[in-house]
Amino acid sequence: MFRGSIKKKGKVTATLSADFSNAGAAAMVTTNGPEGAPATSQSVVVSPGGTNQSEMTLGPDGLYRIFVDVKQESDGGRLTVLVNGKARDEDTIKGDTTWLYSIE
């Protein structure tokens, strides 16, 4: 799901808080880079009921992606994105989820 644009060279923090009732651990992968070129990526694992985050400084252009992979489509949690320490997006997610931002 496209979530809008983020200013270039910003510091982005993506936080996943997994529901206690999830069937297993979730993986969150964040990537940043120009379209068609190798991307910088980070991945974290979040146990049911746990929280983990990824921090990344954006490049001058391209895309920032967040992909959450859960064990079962009924698994979920809360995904929060901060840019330079300020709230950008926060929403409840269910099942595998992708958020996409353009870097401008």
What is the structure about, briefly put?
The chain has 104 residues and is mainly β. It has strands spanning 2-6, 11-18, 26-33, 40-46, 51-57, 62-69, 76-83, 86-94, 97-103. The chain has one domain (2-103): Lipoxygenase-1.
What does this structure look like?
The structure is a single chain. The chain has 104 residues and is mainly β. It has one domain (2-103): Lipoxygenase-1. Helices cover 0% and strands 64% of the residues. It has strands at 2-6, 11-18, 26-33, 40-46, 51-57, 62-69, 76-83, 86-94, 97-103. Strand 3 (26-33) and strand 4 form a beta hairpin. The radius of gyration is 13 Å and the shape is elongated. The mean pLDDT is 95.
Number of domains: 1
Percentage of residues in helical conformation: under 10%
Order of helices and strands: EEEEEEEEE
Nearest-angstrom radius of gyration? 13 Å
Number of helices: 0
Total count of strands:
9
Distance between the termini: 18 Å
CATH class: Mainly Beta
Q: Which architecture name does CATH use?
A: Sandwich
Structural class: mainly beta
The CATH topology comes to: Lipoxygenase-1
Strands across the major sheet, in which order?
1-9-6-3-4
Largest sheet: 5 strands, mixed
Please state roughly what percent of the residues sit in beta strands, choosing from under 5%, 5-15%, 15-25%, 25-35%, 35-45% or over 45%: over 45%
Oligomeric state of shown chains: single chain
Average the pLDDT over all residues and give the rounded result. Answer: 95
Low-confidence sequence ranges: none
Principal-axis shape equals: elongated
